[in-house]
Amino acid sequence: DGGITQSPKYLFRKEGQNVTLSCEQNLNHDAMYWYRQDPGQGLRLIYYSQIVNDFQKGDIAEGYSVSREKKESFPLTVTSAQKNPTAFYLCASSIGGVEKLFFGSGTQLSVL
Amino acid sequence: AQSVTQLGSHVSVSEGALVLLRCNYSSSVPPYLFWYVQYPNQGLQLLLKYTSAATLVKGINGFEAEFKKSETSFHLTKPSAHMRDAAEYFCAVSGSSNTGKLIFGQGTTLQVKP
Questions:
Q1: How far is B16 from chain A (nearest CA, A)?
Q2: Sign (positive/negative) of CA torsion A56, A59, A65, A66?
Q3: pLDDT at B87
Q4: Choosing among A43, A55, A74, A90, which should be mutated to test the B contact, i.e. which has the most B CBs within 10 A?
Q5: Residue range B71-96: average pLDDT?
């Protein structure tokens, strides 16, 4: 079945450590997105990519980095510069334009 | 710029009662509007989408929403709530027709009492 796979489901970060969240899709979608979800704040866009080898900052990109070397993969790195990384991270994809987003099941990141 | 406001972070209804979740939007261009549902520890699923065709949009699981331009609203309704409808619901507006970016509301948690 086609879909989006996020891993790991739970991740713990130590002080000063960079961690990478994986997002893989087999839907052949061009566009991919990373959202951060905090209780009571809805979803906020971190980064998005409309095509391979290109990506743009969203509303809260500071402390995060991404790459888009392959169409099916859009990993997110939470760097040590992100001082409040504890959140639920959601990856999504779409065929592009204003079409519905398909979401992964999320990664819960916590700080040790 | 676009924005979304969901009125009420928590809504509680009895099973079989009407569900009404409120969403107001702000947009400088004709909006595309969405309702998504999220079950615990899962990603979001699309319930329905408005894209400037019919103002009354029917979605999955018996939900529907009506676009009212004069009120800048896109409220979500369901005539009769089921226990399985208990979840968090998000209203969203497209940030741009070119990028597909979505601006999400804060979310409304729906509780269904037996």
A1: 27
A2: negative
A3: 96
A4: A43
A5: 93
